[in-house]
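User: Hi! I have a protein structure encoded as tokens and I'd like to know what sequence might fold into it. I'm fairly new to this, so please keep things simple.
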């Protein structure tokens, strides 16, 4: 998954970090606080070949896995093909791996300007601002993530985009694996100050509808 980027100034990247932190705090305060909502169990993630793999078979473990897989897929699919290949191998369901590798090639072929930017030293980072566990039965977990991607590099102003990502994970062979990971086909809430957002993205109803019951990831807690 490779995100489109809209131009902003480099200084606003710092503002974005503050906005994400503030939104995350507000979401955590206004959302359900039970353990099935957003508590994070210790050691939910294990490093395997440089990939943060979700290894705890619980609701919070599934959320931690989703946070890492969504962010890492976005960051690496064009920017770092070798790391993306390791992610697919270690964290994607076997039935999806061939399609995921093909999607990676398609993403890079369709984004020559991004490939050029990364080759020149450009960088991209993805931040999951909030997420929601939509379904969980022990075997599978479905999540919706509200994510922003930020890209910068030599000779370019920084750019960013907000997205909603829908993910299905399956528990298999001691870890959570990606069975489906797609951009939602509807507008993601987006702050006006930090980009060129559509009227739909700015509507209060869009924020209320899409962020309902979402909670903030506990970075560093897993």
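Assistant: Happy to help. Inverse folding works backwards from shape to sequence: for each of the 222 positions I chose a residue that suits the local structure. Here it is:
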């Amino acid at each position: 998954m490779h995100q489109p980027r809209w131009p902003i100034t480099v200084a606003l990247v710092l503002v974005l970090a503050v906005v994400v932190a503030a939104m995350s705090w507000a979401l955590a305060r206004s959302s359900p606080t039970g353990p099935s909502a957003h508590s994070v169990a210790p050691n939910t993630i294990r490093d395997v070949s440089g990939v943060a793999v979700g290894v705890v078979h619980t609701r919070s473990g599934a959320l931690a896995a989703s946070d890492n897989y969504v962010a890492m897929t976005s960051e690496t699919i064009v920017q770092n093909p070798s790391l993306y290949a390791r992610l697919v191998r270690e964290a994607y369901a076997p039935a999806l791996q061939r399609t995921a590798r093909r999607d990676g090639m398609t993403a890079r072929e369709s984004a020559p300007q991004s490939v050029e930017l990364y080759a020149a030293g450009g960088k991209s980072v993805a931040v999951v601002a909030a997420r929601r566990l939509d379904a969980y039965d022990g075997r599978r977990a479905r999540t919706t993530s509200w994510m922003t991607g930020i890209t910068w590099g030599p000779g370019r102003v920084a750019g960013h985009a907000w997205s909603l990502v829908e993910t299905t994970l399956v528990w298999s062979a001691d870890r959570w694996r990606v069975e489906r990971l797609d951009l939602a086909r509807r507008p993601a809430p987006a702050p006006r100050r930090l980009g060129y957002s559509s009227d739909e993205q700015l509507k209060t109803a869009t924020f209320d509808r899409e962020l309902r019951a979402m909670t903030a990831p506990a970075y560093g807690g897993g």
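A useful reference point when you look it over: The helical segments are 11-30, 35-38, 59-79, 81-91, 94-109, 112-119, 199-202, 204-210. Feel free to ask if any position seems puzzling.
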